């Protein structure tokens, strides 16, 4: 009787997990003498993959992006592999039994944790839910947006700045030609149509970029009707359901459970000020999707999987245990970034291939090479569109002009790159 397959289980099907699955299928399993004895099982809470960086613009309206490119079916990206080599499981990992080596009911021979991270606002990615939930959140937000006259956004990192820029352009007009352009020269400026306030606890926006670039972003945001409040953090937010224009019933009881996506907010700041806004969007940090590992002993203090940053093996695991973590769920890199993920995938897979060979080495049938090593590029690399026409940023420490930021990222928020990535064409050659 044929031996049961040994499963290489990958949890999460986005930049990290989907890429790892393709790479293992293309370059790890074919190079094993007993490659037929293995398969890849890709498990994901969402049946689709999406271009997550596009969320700050995509949340406003579907017309900004072709939806069939923005969202793709995970299973369809693996249709070319035989079913004996690949299986997609649409499901959420809820527990890990490291000794029993199962997640839910799937046994694993090797395990790659690539479950990413969740944003406090459900508008900015799948988080750990299905893709339909993201579309439902966008739909709810879009019902409230046309009547909003004030918006508070918390967080001066790239997500907060991009959301502010996109909403500023959409609601107040585009840079230089928007809400101020028609105002007579020399007279005092009118307020923007929608007052957008971006709050950051830091002394400047975009802490990963030099202050001169951050200030250029702030000036551009001002042209889009966005006011930046620095050096103070949001300490509490309370919501009151916005009055429905159709109800006309001012005396009805307040909604005990207002939807934070569509409700009026009172935003308390550490400075003592309270900002009242028709809509509030938190863009402050992320939480790793690792709750299912809470009792595994694998997590670092910040909730990410404690990972050897050079080899992508989980820190507490021996090579013979074949446990790895990559992407935003792992602490291998300082900042969440797709380019860090893409540089790490070949390293993780080379070490997985090496670790799979260890038993053969023990039997004198294989040769153990050196570990592959990942080194994070720590030079300032961040591109931040500010609406559909310009942006700020740097690549490997070099500042880029607004036109270049638009060309590389701002015109479609990287959608030009994701087709190759999701389909696995990006990994056709071994790196
Ligand atoms: C608004 C925004 C803009 C960004 N812009 C950029 C940018 O321009 N450039 C850049 O380099 N980076 C950007 N990033 C960061 C980038 O998106 C992340 O680094 C990248 O998405 C990380 O990929 P990942 O595969 O680790 O995780 P994620 O993309 O978070 O995907 C995690 C996957 O795991 C699944 N999952 C979650 N929990 C479970 C579970 N328990 N069981 C099974 N599956 C699970 C999810 O469904 C999803 O498929 C941005 C991030 C945000 C939020």
From TrEMBL:
GO molecular function, one term: flavin adenine dinucleotide binding
UniProt region (Disordered), positions on chain: 239-263
InterPro entries associated with the record: FAD/NAD-bd_sf, FAD/NAD-binding_dom
Glycoprotein found in the keyword field: no
Compositionally biased tracts (Polar residues): 239-252
UniProt domain FAD/NAD(P)-binding: residue ranges: 7-340
Pfam family, one: Pyr_redox_2
Cellular component GO terms held in the UniProt record: cytoplasm
Sorted UniProt keywords: FAD, Flavoprotein, Oxidoreductase
UniProt superkingdom: Eukaryota
Keyword hit for Transmembrane: no
Record-stated family: Belongs to the FAD-dependent oxidoreductase family.
Name of this chain's protein: FAD/NAD(P)-binding domain-containing protein
Organism listed in the record: Lasiosphaeria miniovina
């Amino acid at each position: 009787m044929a031996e049961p397959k040994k499963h290489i289980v990958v949890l999460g099907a986005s930049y990290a997990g989907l890429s790892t699955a393709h790479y293992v299928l293309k370059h790890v399993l074919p190079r094993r003498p007993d490659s037929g004895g293995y398969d890849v099982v890709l498990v994901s809470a969402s049946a689709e993959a999406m271009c997550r960086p596009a969320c700050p613009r995509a949340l406003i309206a579907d017309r900004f992006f072709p939806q069939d490119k923005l969202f793709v079916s995970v299973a369809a990206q693996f249709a070319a592999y035989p079913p004996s080599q690949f299986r997609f499981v649409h499901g959420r990992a809820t527990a890990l039994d490291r000794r029993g080596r199962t997640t839910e009911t799937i046994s694993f021979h090797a395990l790659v944790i690539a479950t990413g991270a969740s944003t406090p606002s459900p508008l900015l990615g799948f988080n750990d839910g299905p893709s339909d939930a993201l579309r439902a959140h966008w739909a709810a937000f879009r019902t409230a947006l046309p009547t909003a006259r004030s918006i508070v956004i918390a967080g001066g990192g790239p997500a907060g700045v991009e959301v502010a820029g996109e909403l500023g352009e959409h609601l107040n007009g585009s840079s230089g030609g928007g809400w101020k352009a028609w105002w007579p020269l020399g007279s005092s400026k009118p307020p923007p149509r929608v007052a957008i306030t971006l709050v950051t606890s830091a002394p400047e926006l975009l802490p990963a970029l030099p202050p001169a670039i951050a200030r250029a972003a702030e000036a551009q945001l001002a042209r889009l009707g966005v006011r930046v409040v620095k050096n103070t953090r949001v300490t509490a937010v309370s919501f009151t359901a916005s009055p429905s224009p159709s109800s006309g019933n001012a005396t009805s009881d307040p909604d005990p459970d207002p939807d934070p996506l569509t409700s009026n907010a009172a935003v308390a700041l550490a400075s003592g000020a309270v900002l009242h806004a028709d809509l509030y969007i938190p863009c402050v940090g992320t939480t790793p999707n690792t709750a299912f590992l809470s009792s595994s002993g694998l997590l670092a203090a910040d909730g990410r999987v404690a990972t050897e940053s050079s080899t992508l093996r989980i820190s507490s695991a021996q090579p013979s245990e074949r446990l790895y973590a990559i992407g935003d769920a792992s602490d291998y890199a300082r900042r969440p970034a797709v380019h860090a993920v893409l540089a790490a995938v070949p390293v993780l897979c080379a070490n997985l291939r090496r670790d799979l060979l260890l038993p053969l080495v023990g039997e004198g049938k294989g040769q153990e090479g050196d570990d592959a090593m990942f080194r994070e590029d720590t030079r300032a690399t961040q591109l931040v569109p500010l609406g559909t026409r310009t942006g700020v940023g740097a690549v490997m420490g070099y500042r880029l002009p607004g036109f270049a930021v638009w060309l590389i990222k701002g015109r479609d928020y990287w959608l030009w790159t994701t087709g190759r990535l999701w389909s696995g064409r990006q990994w056709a050659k071994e790196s």
